[in-house]
């Protein structure tokens, strides 16, 4: 049996197949699929037990650190509190002990009362509510069968979730767009409810049943509507999360989408109906009767069986699964062809799902509009002979304060990433100019693509080791040559798919395409041509190659983080330790499982660091293991967005190393923007944990990294609160040791005389984080263990 490409980690469990509203835009009851008529109203005990068993065995087989289950319908509250309790308890009991359950329910809210909220608080079930905006907007579609408004009851439900005892349960609002509703009124109505998140959803439609486009609204009314909302959202300082807008911002920088309706990430979601049938996503119900069906059920089939279903495979095939029109589109990496269901056309010659989205024009306008509205300052690749222009993204004062305290949320790290991209562009221009302007065809293509397909160039130049090449070239390392520049241009050509041809030198039998992978080819000069359906490489011996020999492999440790395991880039040797070779399939699986577990731990124990890591850590380079008992990790100063790590034995250690090294990555980006110390200072300063004195930047880097180390051990102490045992004792001793070390280092920085006023302010932020840790009570044994460890480090030299 072939191995599946991606396990499921998201499950929509239908607990009731009917609804108490009669929304006329509902895809379950009002669109093409009619399978709901033959299904049981409520999920039965036998179906529930087998569903939980299937999810549990899948999580165990694929070593999933967490799964998300969404209780759905129909209207799931119709199942009643007792049935919902049984569902939640069955799912939790079936999962392995080391697999967390993210349990949610999506409801229209009209039956939500304190009995349900108390149950959800007890069982940790997050609640999402459907609401289309103000009363006028909501009543356009969301009414009872007799025409009564549901709006007051939904507002009552939201008010209940906003009460302090239930606020932590509120997951957000789902708002279906109707272009006849006033976007300003809709936005203001939902913003007034202070939700943690709002999803603005395009109404489900196909080429057979297209969305309404009222006269007088222009050719792209849905994009215009969403761009109005986007402008208000940005002006308000992004007061809540919006997956659509954030996904556009993320994918433009080469990161993952947060929604299946955008981006090229494979789907990892499956639906389980009340009769035990496995189905594809519910949105397919809008295509044709029976479209979501797989023919599989929980009694006769495993989830691995379902993952091999052709329909599931189609939703996991990325760029290759899109129509030729989509593959040649300059915004395809962000658009992703739109939602799979929206591509359907069933008339003669319609091609089924092999079409662009019925919202194609709207998606193009939306993406370009968001880009133009300020997706960070963009520095274009200069034209030949023009001086490089650096326009780094400014950090707001609140963001500088946030970083000074050691943290940095997603928006702050994205600002750092934008500034790093601008600096990389300028360094590439300077490196090319310093080289005597060799490889003019590569530079000309990058410049031309930067005007016609800037998102493509952004993705390629954001690759961490693109800047590494420029830094080496500017440092006089002539051995690196101009081949990497040609590789960058070739990768952009492949991504653009327009037919551009780029000569690229092949060394050591490999042709490397940054962000994509490498191709085995004879040494010499090859010509790479990007095409809408892929690429061709004409090698030096005349052979033609059309596939990557070793693609760059990406894994998804969590729904909001995708990371590349960069084991092919020849410039990955920028770390202080030897890099590992190409990972075997078994090693890749081990890394995937370890990263999933580490990501779960980071989200639980270091939430102040996890969001920034998810937004900015694009790659991990595997390193060779160090001597027995020594962990090996590294951050390269001229490679933003990547860390090097030799995979440790345990996931908690991996989580610690990720947090530690990404601190170095963040601070390096900060130092590119802000003068925290006098660069002319020649003094050497002792760090408490090292026997050798270091320049002030080394002390600053070490102190900043150990903010995360200290908080990690503090979180472990909390996890072991009151518990005996070797692991608990170690956590307390490590916390005692590192809080002392870090506090001392902060004061040495402050007293060094080498810091600027801004550097002193930054150090004060670090002190603000450290000071409360010193007041945390610890057993005397932990303090004595810290004393012994400190003495041992002093005796053996750190």
TrEMBL record:
The segment(s) forming the Radical SAM core domain are 5-256
Q: Which InterPro entries does UniProt cross-reference here?
A: AKG_HExxH (IPR026337), Aldolase_TIM (IPR013785), rSAM (IPR007197), rSAM_sf (IPR058240), rSAM_SPASM_FxsB (IPR026335), Sulphatase_maturase_rSAM (IPR023867)
Its keywords, alphabetically, are: Iron, Iron-sulfur, Metal-binding, S-adenosyl-L-methionine
Q: Which residues form the signal peptide?
A: none
Q: Does the keyword Iron-sulfur apply?
A: yes
Q: Does the keyword Iron-sulfur apply?
A: yes
So which domain of life are we looking at?
Bacteria
Q: Which NCBIfam families match?
A: mod_HExxH, SAM_SPASM_FxsB
- According to UniProt, the name of this protein is FxsB family cyclophane-forming radical SAM/SPASM peptide maturase
Gene source species: Kitasatospora aburaviensis
What high-level taxonomic lineage is stated for the organism? Bacteria, Bacillati, Actinomycetota, Actinomycetes, Kitasatosporales
């Amino acid at each position: 049996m072939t191995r599946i490409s991606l396990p499921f980690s998201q499950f929509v469990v239908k607990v009731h197949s009917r609804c108490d509203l009669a929304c006329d835009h509902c895809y379950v009851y009002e669109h093409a699929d009619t399978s709901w008529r033959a299904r049981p109203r409520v999920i039965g005990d036998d179906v529930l037990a087998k569903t939980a068993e299937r999810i549990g065995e899948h999580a165990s087989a694929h070593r999933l650190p967490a799964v998300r289950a969404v209780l759905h319908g129909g209207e799931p509250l119709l199942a009643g509190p007792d049935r919902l309790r049984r569902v939640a308890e069955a799912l939790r009991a079936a999962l392995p002990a080391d697999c967390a359950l993210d349990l949610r329910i999506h409801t229209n809210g009209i039956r939500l009362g304190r009995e349900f909220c108390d149950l959800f608080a007890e069982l940790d079930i997050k609640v999402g509510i459907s609401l289309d905006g103000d009363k006028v907007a909501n009543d356009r579609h969301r009414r009872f069968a007799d025409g009564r408004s549901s709006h007051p009851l939904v507002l009552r439900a939201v008010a209940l979730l906003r009460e302090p005892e239930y606020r932590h349960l509120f997951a957000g609002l789902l708002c279906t767009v109707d272009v006849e509703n006033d976007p300003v009124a809709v936005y203001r109505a939902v913003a007034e409810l202070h939700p943690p998140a709002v999803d603005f959803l395009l109404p489900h439609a196909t080429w057979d049943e297209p969305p309404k486009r009222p006269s007088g609204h222009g050719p792209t009314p849905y994009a215009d509507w969403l761009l109005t909302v986007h402008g208000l959202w940005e002006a308000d300082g992004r007061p809540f999360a919006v997956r659509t807008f954030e996904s556009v911002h993320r994918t433009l920088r080469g990161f993952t989408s947060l929604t299946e309706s955008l981006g090229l990430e494979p789907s990892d979601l499956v639906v389980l109906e009340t009769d035990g049938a496995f189905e594809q996503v519910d949105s397919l119900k809008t295509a044709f009767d029976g479209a979501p069906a797989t023919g599989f059920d929980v009694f006769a089939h495993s989830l691995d069986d379902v993952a091999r279903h052709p329909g599931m495979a189609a939703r996991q095939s990325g760029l290759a699964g899109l129509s030729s029109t989509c593959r040649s589109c300059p915004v395809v990496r962000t658009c992703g062809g739109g939602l799979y269901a929206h591509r359907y056309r069933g008339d003669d010659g319609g091609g089924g799902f092999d079409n662009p989205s019925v919202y194609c024009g709207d998606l193009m306008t939306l993406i370009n509009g968001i880009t133009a509205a300020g997706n960070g300052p963009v520095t274009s690749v200069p034209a030949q002979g023009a001086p490089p222009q650096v326009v780094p993204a400014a950090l707001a004062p609140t963001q500088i304060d946030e970083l000074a305290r050691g943290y940095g949320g997603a928006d702050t790290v994205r600002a750092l990433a934008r500034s790093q991209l601008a600096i990389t562009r300028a360094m590439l221009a300077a490196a090319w100019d310093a080289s005597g302007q060799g490889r003019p065809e590569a530079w000309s293509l990058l410049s031309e693509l930067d005007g016609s397909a800037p998102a493509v160039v952004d993705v390629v130049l954001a690759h961490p080791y693109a800047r590494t090449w420029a830094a080496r070239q500017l440092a006089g390392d002539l051995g690196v040559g101009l081949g990497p520049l040609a590789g960058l241009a070739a990768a952009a050509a492949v991504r653009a798919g327009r037919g551009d041809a780029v000569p690229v030198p092949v060394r050591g039998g490999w042709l490397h395409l940054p962000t994509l992978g490498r191709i085995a080819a004879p040494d010499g000069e090859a010509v790479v041509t990007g095409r809408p359906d892929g690429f061709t490489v004409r090698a030096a011996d005349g052979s033609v190659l059309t596939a990557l020999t070793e693609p760059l492999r990406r894994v998804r440790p969590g729904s909001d983080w995708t990371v590349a395991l960069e084991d092919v880039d020849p410039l990955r040797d920028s770390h202080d330790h030897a890099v590992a070779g190409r990972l075997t399939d078994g090693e890749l699986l081990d890394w995937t499982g370890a990263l999933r577990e580490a990501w779960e731990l980071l989200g639980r124990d270091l939430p102040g660091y996890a969001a920034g890591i998810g937004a900015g850590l694009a790659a991990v380079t595997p390193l060779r293991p160090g001597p027995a008992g020594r962990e090996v990790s590294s951050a390269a100063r001229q490679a933003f967005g990547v860390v090097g790590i030799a995979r440790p034995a345990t996931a908690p250690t991996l989580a610690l190393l990720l947090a530690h090294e990404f601190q170095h990555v963040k601070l390096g980006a900060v130092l590119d923007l802000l003068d925290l110390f006098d660069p002319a200072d020649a003094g050497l300063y002792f760090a408490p944990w090292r026997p050798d004195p270091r320049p002030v930047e080394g002390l600053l880097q070490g102190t900043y990294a150990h903010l995360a180390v200290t908080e990690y051990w503090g979180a472990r102490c909390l996890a072991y609160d009151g518990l005996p045992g070797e692991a608990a004792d170690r956590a307390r001793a490590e916390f005692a040791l590192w809080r002392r070390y870090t506090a001392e280092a902060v004061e040495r920085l402050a007293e060094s005389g080498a810091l600027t006023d801004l550097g002193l302010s930054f150090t004060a932020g670090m002190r603000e984080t450290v000071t409360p840790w010193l007041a945390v009570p610890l057993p005397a044994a932990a303090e004595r263990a810290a004393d012994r460890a400190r003495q041992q480090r002093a005796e053996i030299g750190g």
